Amino acid sequence: MEILKGIGVSPGVAMSTAIVLDVEDLAVQPRQVPPEAADAELARLDRAIADALRDIERLRDEVTQRSGREIGAIFDFHLGLLRDRSLVGQFRNEVASGHYTAEYAVNLVMKRLSATFLGMKDRYFAERVKDIYDLERRVLRHLIGQQREDLNRLSRDVIVIAHDLLPSQTAQLDRNRVRGFAVDVGGRTSHTAIVARAMSIPAVVGVGDVSKRVAPGDIILIDGTRGLVVINPNEDQLKDFDVQLERQHRIELELAQLRDLPAQTRDGHVVSLQANIEFPPEIDDAVERGAAGIGLYRTEFLYLNSEQEPTEADHYNAYVDAVRRLRGKPLVIRTLDLGADKYDPKADPATLERNPFLGDRSIRLCLHDIPMFKRQLRAILRASVAGDVRIMFPMISTLLELRQARMVLSDVMEELDDEGVKFNTDIPVGMMMEVPSAALMASVFAREVNFFSIGTNDLIQYTLAVDRTNERVAGLFNAAHPSVLLLIRDIIRAGARTQVPVSVCGEMAGEPLYTLLLLGLGLTTFSMNAPDIPEIKKIIRSTTMPHAREIARRAMGFDSERQVMHYLREETRKLVPDAF
Ligand code: PEP
Ligand code: MG
Q1: Do residues 209 and 164 make contact, with C-beta atoms less than 8 angstroms apart?
Q2: Helix, strand, coil distribution of the chain in percent, nearest 5
């Protein structure tokens, strides 16, 4: 039994057997599988070998056609090796008798083979070592890739353990089978964490070396609330798990009863609780949990479904699908926020930026690729006749940027007009407030947009100079920092003065600790991961506006984030004792 501590990013407890994904550089760990898992492991091995053989045959044919038979023959050596019964027999033996994972079996046997070749006097054989290495990588890639792909159609319950998961991989996890996951790296607002919360999968990130400590087949207990990963739990921990699971079910049932009740304070002040989504089908669940609309649709996730750039039709179909599911409720479509920790279309290693969070991402990227930007804007405008669609630009940091984005939007409107295509000419246009330079000038920006949405994830990152995805500085990433609160307060004030509605769509909106404070600062719309809606509603329904205002006033008087958090925790617990 071993307990590892990380950052709990998606609450709840879960227990199952581990699947371990190796790191991208294919460094293979000496791991064993339980004897009863050996057959499944052999089947994986056979599949990977068959896939690798198919790969090599295709490559040989292509190369032969392009460069002649002699060059193509290089691959015959690879084919010969991988078809060699004795070699494959050795792989299988390491799995069947040694109980090693297929990856480690391949690694082990190929290492032995290269040592033999290296020891030969004949230069021809010594040089073939590179081919052995090449072949080993190819089989390993299939084994590891296979595991990654298989995660969206699993036949049994698992806990996924990995060095890291891309947001796209997390989004594709089979939510009925993946009970939880833990990864070595990451922070609370990394996209992997956000997606886990949206999917209600208990998750712990930043666990250091969990991917090295866990072996496939280990029993893993994930506590996403407390940020714990227990490897092969003992009796006491199993009992504790049962108690927690029961509590979890009880709270879920209780919160589900709030679904049809309004999100209003005891003195009748109504707020709008909306949901953040990555994919339109999530809307059904969000509405089921009481969402009054979608306050943030992260459209960059459209890139995850296709190998190529999404076409205008891909955008349009997704937006119309979303609008239909919402049946009249508002939909805020955020234009592409590509780059940094999200999907990066320039992921070519030759053009990698040293500091992607401060680089050519989001609206900057769109303004550098007008055809791509226009494709999306055309689709949004065309979808705007189908329902209450609004446009939001991400990561605006200067007025010029906002004006350029609006100019491209006007161009697109003109083009559609010329083509006789209908769209809502009064479509509301808003911007994310997530860069301090914009937050500080909120009243100036307010003259040029219809709404603001505060992206606290990036606002905190840029204000405190803390990478939101880096577990080493996760302790410094804090929404309660007085500087962050001042920026939020001033944006809300600027909005109130100029009658520009303000919402918060960063993770802070769904954290019960900040509900009373945000309400008291005058926030009218909260947009969050759908599973958080019931709890936030419960807190809102437990207070009055004068009380929330008083709490906000006191909280703004502290000069350290610790004091703010302590105070808010105490006050929230007075109203809702089982909050957090
Ligand atoms: C934010 O930055 O707070 C936000 C909501 O946007 P994202 O998390 O997609 O960057
Ligand atoms: Mg952001």
Answers
A1: no
A2: 55, 15, 30
State the Cα–Cα distance between residues 523 and 514, nearest whole angstrom.
11
d(CA 502, CA 378): 26
- Tokens describing residue 556: 């703004």
C-alpha dihedral, 439 to 441 to 443 to 449, nearest 10°:
-70
Pull the structure tokens for residue 1. 């039994």
Q: How far apart are CA 26 and CA 470, in angstroms?
A: 22
Instruction: Give Cα 267 distance to the centre of its chain.
Output: 37
3-class SS at 543? coil
Give the DSSP H/E element, type plus range, for residue 475.
none
Asked if residues 58 and 200 have their Cβ atoms less than 8 Å apart, the reply is: no
Rounded-to-integer distance, Cα 368 and Cα 365, Å: 5
With a 6 Å cutoff on the Cβ, whether 265 touches ligand 1 is no
CB of 505 shorter than 6 A to ligand 1:
yes
Which residues, including other chains, have CB under 8 Å from residue 356's CB and lie 6 or more apart?
A: 339, 340, 341, 344
The full DSSP string for 351-413 is G--S-GGGSS-HHHHHHH-HHHHHHHHHHHHHHGGGS-EEEEE-S--SHHHHHHHHHHHHHHH
Please indicate whether residue 192, judged by its CB atom, sits closer than 6 Å to ligand 1.
Answer: no
CA 453 – CA 295 distance, rounded (Å):
8
Query: What is the tally of helices (H) and strands (E) in the chain?
Result: 24, 16
Q: How far apart are CA 101 and CA 331, in angstroms?
A: 47
Do 390 and 424 meet the contact criterion of CB atoms below 8 Å apart?
A: no
The set of residues, in sequence order, having a beta carbon less than 8 Å from that of 114 and lying 6+ positions away, is 129, 132, 133
Q: What is the rounded distance in angstroms from the CA atom of residue 294 to the CA atom of residue 328?
A: 11
Lookup: tokens for 47? 């599949």
Atom 6 (ligand 1) nearest CA = 455
The answer to which of 79-93, 99-113, 133-147, 534-548 has the lowest mean pLDDT is 133-147
Lookup result for tokens 């990227």: 365
Q: How confident is the model at residue 454 (pLDDT cuts 50, 70, 90)?
A: very high
- Ligand 1 centroid to residue 469 C-alpha, Å: 12
Assigned token pair, 3: 């307990």
Q: Report which bound ligand comes closest to the CA of 334.
A: 1
* Cα 104 from Cα 28, distance rounded (Å): 6
Instruction: Locate all alpha helices (DSSP H) within 199-234, ordered by sequence.
Output: 210-213
Identify the three-state secondary structure at position 258.
Answer: coil
Mean pLDDT for the chain overall: 90
pTM (2 d.p.) = 0.76
pLDDT at 24 over 50: no
Q: Using one digit for the tens of pLDDT, what is the confidence trace for 430-449?
A: 999 999 999 999 999 999 99
Does any ligand 1 atom lie closer than 6 A to the CB of residue 455? yes
